[in-house]
Structure formats: structure tokens, C-alpha cells
Prior knowledge:
Layout: H1 2-7, E1 12-15, E2 22-30, H2 34-41, E3 42-43, E4 57-64, E5 71-80, E6 91-98, H3 100-112, E7 116-117, H4 122-129, H5 135-146, H6 150-161, H7 163-187, H8 191-217, H9 219-227, E8 229-234, H10 241-249, E9 267-273, E10 276-282, H11 292-307, E11 310-316, H12 323-332, E12 336-342, H13 352-358, E13 364-366, H14 375-387, H15 391-394, H16 403-425, H17 429-447, H18 453-460
Parallel strand pairs: 1-7, 8-10, 8-11, 11-12, 12-13
Antiparallel strand pairs: 1-2, 2-6, 3-4, 4-5, 5-6, 9-10
Helix pairs in contact: 4-5, 5-6, 6-9, 7-8, 7-17, 8-16, 16-17
The structure holds guanosine-5'-triphosphate (GTP) and magnesium ion.
The site of magnesium ion (MG) has 5 residues, from helix 10.
Amino acid sequence: MTMHADRNNDTIAAISTPSGQGGIGIVRLSGKGSFQVADRIFTSPKGGRPSGYPSHSIRFGHIRIPDKGDIVDEVLLAVMRAPGTYTSEDVVEVNCHGGPVPLRTILKLCLDQGARLAEPGEFTKRAFLNGRMDLSQAEAVLDMIRSESEAAQRLAAQQLKGVFSEKIRGLRDRIIRILSDIELAIDFTEEDVQFASSGKITRDIKNLRRSVKEVLDTSGKGMILRRGIKAVICGRPNVGKSSLMNALLRHDRVIVTPVAGTTRDVIEESMDISGVMVRLSDTAGIIGTRDRVGMEGVKRSRQKLLEADVAVFMVDASRPLSGEDRRIYGMVRGKRTVVVINKIDLPRAFDVKDAVKAFETNDVLEVSALRGRGLDKIEAAIAERSFGGDMDIAIEGPIVSNLRHKTALEKALEGIERGIEVTDKNYNGELLSSDLNEAFYRLGLITGESAGDDVLDSIFSQFCIGK
Length: 467
Ligand SMILES: Nc1nc2c(ncn2[C@@H]2O[C@H](COP(=O)(O)OP(=O)(O)OP(=O)(O)O)[C@@H](O)[C@H]2O)c(=O)[nH]1
Ligand SMILES: [Mg+2]
């Protein structure tokens, strides 16, 4: 434990910019000794030493090999004094030329002067340990770096701001209040007082359960917005699945031929629908094929369909609806599905009303993948089915976008449910508080109050060195 505490007092250093060549590279220092290190390796033509510069100022100068004076690089040096910094500690950032050799040389000079190489995510971990952000905000830093779409980036920004943490903290505060009401009720001996307060306690817990459920309910769209929508185009052979794939990608990606059974494998590509990433898959026409390649393709297509957030189910307007169409539709039953009639540029073999009846939905889109007609309607439908369609509305308020948070909330909810069961049967203050304490603990895993070293390590080890 003391070992650990000592490590957190070290002055750490790392290259914070990605490896490779770039315009600028940054070596970052954090900790009590940062300014001393900088004093030893930096000189400014205007004189003065970094430890004497005002906080949050930047100076032009040179990194030199101490005692020898040889110039390593021409740099800008930023000095930021605790506590108003990323880590809440003294921080120095050396902006040098963005090549691996100058960066490594400057890092080595810092290490020679007593700094220790930072572990992955250690700067952010310090920000967390020093109370500048909670654990879910620290995770948002990683989400921000990893974001691959506007939606993911905006979710991360919101979580970083603390919108989600605030919600979780509010829930924890409510648990504390209920717990102290339970204590009071236990202390009172008169029956009637106990009865009155247990009624209020039960009501409060039920309200708490509703609030936890409300937050949990956002996890479906939250996870989709963060990682992207998995959308799968399915339908029998030759209906135009690959044509639609190419049309949506605006790029001739997949082979299209008049031969049924052209696509034998699942083909996946990413696209963007109004700022949300969509992982779009084209599949093999699902039928009872006999040859081995076809069977494997069909197997993979079914698997893809199982994992999909949204199924784009397609039929061919120029051929009568068949039992095969209905069978495939049966496979997507219970899924969020977009029903598409393709090839409306050809003479029709059935009426839209027939499709509405066969697929029990009024929401049938008519398109021509060949002519590029109706594509926008398909995009809008995918967006609508998976996150409601409007990103501004979808990302409003606290949102669960990460599996760790979702699991913690589910466990918290279980504790609360158990507590409610206890109160519904026969009010028992002790049992109830133990269930609520469990919920309190689980929510604390999200914000970090109850997170042990194992949890912290598993989170911060995912970061890059230098963040
Ligand atoms: N007229 C017309 N033809 C289309 C349309 N969409 C696709 N086709 C044609 O239908 C045939 C089959 O198209 P694909 O996109 O390969 O169909 P698929 O569903 O991927 O077929 P498999 O991979 O065999 O399952 C090709 O000749 C396409 O040019 C359309 O909207 N109108
Ligand atoms: Mg195909």
C-alpha cells in the first residue's frame, strides 16, 4: 500500500503524441519534481527558469544536455502549476519537433533527471486519484480518443463533462438518505412511528428503482451510438441486396450479377448515417443450398443476422412473394426491421398491400437500388429504428454507453429489487439496508468510489502511454 502511494508521488514523464513523424511532438511531465527537471534541461534566450515562470505560460527556448550544453532541439515549453492542471499536479509540456529521435532524446533527459516513465493512462489516473474527475469521466477520455463517429465523440464529451456522473451521484445520495431513514426507523421503538416511516421508505425505494431503470433503459441506444449500428441486409437470392449495399456505400464494393447466389460470404463495411457509424453487412441469399460453400455462407449470414441491431429485409417487386420470403422474414421477427421492396422500376408482381399483410407492418419502403431511388428513406429508417433518428435528442441527458456501467447498474437494480421484495413481504430494516448497501456499492464502481485496484488497472491499462 505504501509502495503504491509512493508511486503516485513520483514525477512521471512520457511522450504524449503518437509514434511516427509529425509537425509537433509533446513530452509531458507531471508531479512535484516537474519544474526541477525542466530547470535542468531547458534554457530560454530571455533567461529565467521554468520554475519561475508564471503558471499556464509558454516559452520559446532550447532543450540542452545538462552540464554539457549541447542543444537537442528548439522547443516551446508550457508550464502549468498545480492544482489547475490535467492531473491536478505540476505539469510541464515540451513541444518539440515531432520526430521519434528528438522525442525519445528529450524523454530520456527527463528520466535521467529523476522522472519515471509513466504507465499507460497514468496521467489520467492521477487526475482521477486527485479528484479532478471521477472514474466514468476518466473512461470518457478514452472514449473520446477512440471515437470513430460524431455520435461517439459527442457521447464522450457529455460523459467527460460529468452529465452521467452527476446522475449516478444523485442516485447514490438518494440511497444514503433512505439508509439513514431506515436507521431512524430501527431506532424508534414505538410501533406506529416505525410503521409510518416504513411506508415512506418503501415509496422512496420504489421511486429509486424507477430512476435506476430509466437510466438503464438508455443503454440500448447508448451502446449503439458509441460503437455503431450493426445493420444487416437480408433476403432471398437475387433480390438486390448487394446492389443496395453498393448504393448505400456509394461505392462499387460488392459483386452484383443477374445470377442468383452471387454473394457467398458476409461482407461488412462502415458508413455514416447522420453522424452515427453504421457497420453494414451484405449477406448471402438465405436458402437451403446444397453445396458446401453456399451452406457455409448461409450459416454465416444467419449468424450475422442474430447479432444485428437492425435487419434490412428485402424483397423483389418483380417477383411474387414466396414462402422463402416469409421464412426469411420469420428469422428477423422480434428484431428491429426495415422492410424494403426493391426493383420498383420493374413491372410489379404484387401489390404493396400484399407486403403490408404478409409482413404485418405498415412501414414498407419502396426503392430501386439500381436507380438509387429511396436510399435516403432506408437510411432514415435504420437511424429511426436504432436510436430514434434524431441524434440531438438521442444524446440528451445521462446515457449508459459502456458495458461496465450497464452491468453495475443492473447489479444495483438487483439489490434494490431484493430490498423491495423484503419490504413487500415483511419489513425488515437490517435486510433492507444490506440490499441497499449493495446497490450503493455497485453504483460506486461506476464513479470509482468503490473501485479497487483491479478495476482501476483494467481501465487505465487500456490507455496509451502519455495520456
Ligand atoms: N431493375 C432492377 N434490377 C435490380 C435492382 N437491384 C438489383 N437489380 C438486379 O438484380 C440482380 C441481382 O442483384 P444483386 O444485388 O446481385 O442481388 P443479391 O440479392 O445480392 O443476390 P445474391 O447475392 O445472389 O443473393 C442484378 O442483375 C441487379 O442488377 C433494381 O432496383 N432494379
Ligand atoms: Mg449479393
